[in-house]
Design a protein that fits this description.
single chain, 178 residues, mainly alpha, 9 helices
Length: 178
C-alpha cells in the first residue's frame, strides 16, 4: 500500500468515501466526550456476540475449503499438480495466481486447500502465491473494491498486487528450493 500512497492517486477514490470519512470523524469527536464504561459482564456479552458473528460468517468457507482440500488430496493426481505448478515449471507461480483469482475464500477457508497442495508437491512459494491471490485478488473482492475505487485505481491496485504476489512466490521458491 505504501507504493499506491506515494503515487498520489486519491483522486481515483469515489467521492462518497471521503464524505463518509468526514462524517465518521465528526461522530467520533461528538462521542469522545460521552464514552460509557462497560462492565465485565457487558464486555463478555459483546465479545461473545462479535465472536459468534465471525463464526457465522466464516464457517461455510472453512467447510468448503476442507471439501476442496480433501478432493485435491484424494482425487487429483500428484503428477498433475507437479506438472502444472511444480518446481520444474518456470510459469508455475503466475499460473497459481491466475487459478486463485476466480476463487473466493477467506484465509481460514483456503488453508485446507493450501495444505493439500503442499502435500501434493507444489513448492511453498507457489502455494503462497496461490493463497494470496485467493484472498487478495479474487473476482468478488474486486467487485467490492470497485464500489469505492474508480477503475483506474482498481487497475493499479490489481497490477501492483499481482506483481507483488508473483514476486513473493518466486522469492520463496528461490530461497526454499536452492
Amino acid at each position: 500500500m505504501q507504493v499506491i500512497g506515494r503515487l498520489k492517486l486519491e483522486h481515483w477514490v469515489e467521492p462518497f468515501v471521503w464524505e463518509l470519512q468526514r462524517s465518521h470523524q465528526n461522530q467520533e469527536l461528538d462521542q469522545s466526550f460521552q464514552s460509557p464504561r462497560l462492565s465485565w459482564k457487558q464486555r463478555f456479552h459483546q465479545g461473545w456476540f462479535q465472536s459468534s458473528q465471525i463464526v457465522q460468517s466464516v464457517w461455510l468457507y472453512v467447510v468448503i475449503g476442507i471439501a476442496i482440500g480433501a478432493g485435491i488430496h484424494g482425487y487429483v493426481p500428484t503428477t498433475l499438480v507437479t506438472q502444472i505448478a511444480g518446481a520444474d515449471n518456470p510459469l508455475a507461480v503466475p499460473v497459481a495466481v491466475v487459478l486463485g483469482v476466480p476463487l473466493y475464500a477467506n484465509i481460514a477457508g483456503v488453508m485446507p486447500i493450501t495444505e493439500a497442495l503442499v502435500n501434493k508437491g507444489m513448492p511453498l512459494g507457489t502455494v503462497l502465491a496461490f493463497t494470496m491471490a485467493v484472498t487478495a485478488l479474487s473476482f468478488p473482492e474486486m467487485v467490492i473494491l470497485r464500489r469505492v475505487l474508480r477503475l483506474q485505481l482498481l487497475t493499479v491496485f490489481i497490477g501492483l498486487m499481482t506483481l507483488g504476489i508473483i514476486s513473493v512466490g518466486y522469492l520463496f521458491n528461490l530461497l526454499l528450493l536452492s
